[in-house]
Amino acid sequence: MVGFKSMGWLPEPTHRRLSAEAKKKDSSLGILAFETAKTMSTLVSLYKSISDEEISRLKNDVIKSEGVAFLNSRDEGFLLSLAYAERLEDLDRAAAVVSRLGKKCSDFGLNRFDLIYTDLKLGILDFGKLEYGSRSSEKKVKKMEKLVSATSCLRSALEGLTELEISERKLNQWKSRQIELQKTNYDLFYQKLENQRKEVRHFREISLWSTTFDKSVNLMARIVCVVYARICVVFGQQSRQFPLVKEKILPHSGPILTTSKRSIVRFYSRRSFLFLR
Q1: Domain that holds residue 158
Q2: Which residues form the DUF3475 domain (predicted)?
């Protein structure tokens, strides 16, 4: 197996060395901040749903409840396999978004996250390096929570600004028709409009809107790997229901080359082992 830290992909931000040209290309998320926030929120929810407490509650309370048994099945193994499949499906969707955003990163390792995730699901990468609940993982999750919260505030601020700007256009129409209004009302309105614009600028600066592709994708990519490794640990018996690859496979994700060729990689599934290179 290939060690998580020994690979050239997913370097720590402090260790990454970008050329001057790459830094110029490193742009912020902008309007993609809202889609990124949705994906981050999904990853945070997945991360918390596989804690020791949540897994214990799932196995001892939820699965054994009369309602679940009546509506679904009394077979605990079957119900656990459903829970495993549901989490894996959510993770696959999040990983697909991370892979797509990774194509816009200036870091070559993040460009190839689709290959990394494929190697991870094939069991080529070492799970021992993907520690759930470590200080590093917890810090990244908290960072994502802050970014998601700030981006949510930005959305609300933008909606409020849109409403005020619509009102501003109506006021200008009234002015053009020489409809008299008290000067105090104008002053209060324009002061409120200016404050709203300042609020929007503030949340743009602290939210995902101004966060670079490299920083946001790096956060999500690492949590995707940690969550997948954790899912395989807590749903060990269910995760082994998928067929294993017995022949020797070289990792698609490393080492990093100086030049790259365009490639298409399909996520590993029960039905297919097809990889197009």
Answers
A1: 149-208
A2: 31-86
